[in-house]
Amino acid sequence: MFGNLGNMMDMFGKMKDIQARMKEAQSTLSGITDTGEAGAGMVKATVNGLRQVLKVEIDPDVVKPEDREMMQDLIVAAINKAMENIEPKIREHLKKSTEGLLPNIPGFDLGSMMQ
């Protein structure tokens, strides 16, 4: 009977470790960045692991009043590509940060808990 209680206490201790490691991993996500491009590099957007847009670069040739709609579309496309690029980096970072805390349970991904 007390063995089960001991296992439960051990599990709660591991959960606290997991929470602390996840919080630490989250705090370092701002240092992970990726850039997406659109229009063959005419527009570039850089995002971080917190899914924040850090920078948008626009080729001067795109900045024409008559091309405003195209420029807006390229900006959106570049940001979406950067967000798509950063996702695997976020998952890998969180996976490495929590490695060894829990046994390998198929289908259980701590990285997916951060979305």
TrEMBL record:
One of its GO terms (cellular component) is bacterial nucleoid. Belongs to the YbaB/EbfC family. Homodimer. This is Nucleoid-associated protein BLX24_05070. GO terms for molecular function: DNA binding. Binds to DNA and alters its conformation. May be involved in regulation of gene expression, nucleoid organization and DNA protection. The keyword Cytoplasm applies. NCBIfam families: DNA_YbaB_EbfC. The lineage of its organism: Bacteria, Pseudomonadati, Bacteroidota, Cytophagia, Cytophagales. It is found in: Cytoplasm, Nucleoid. Keywords: Cytoplasm, DNA-binding. It comes from Arsenicibacter rosenii. InterPro entries: YbaB-like_sf (IPR036894), YbaB/EbfC (IPR004401). PANTHER family: NUCLEOID-ASSOCIATED PROTEIN YBAB.
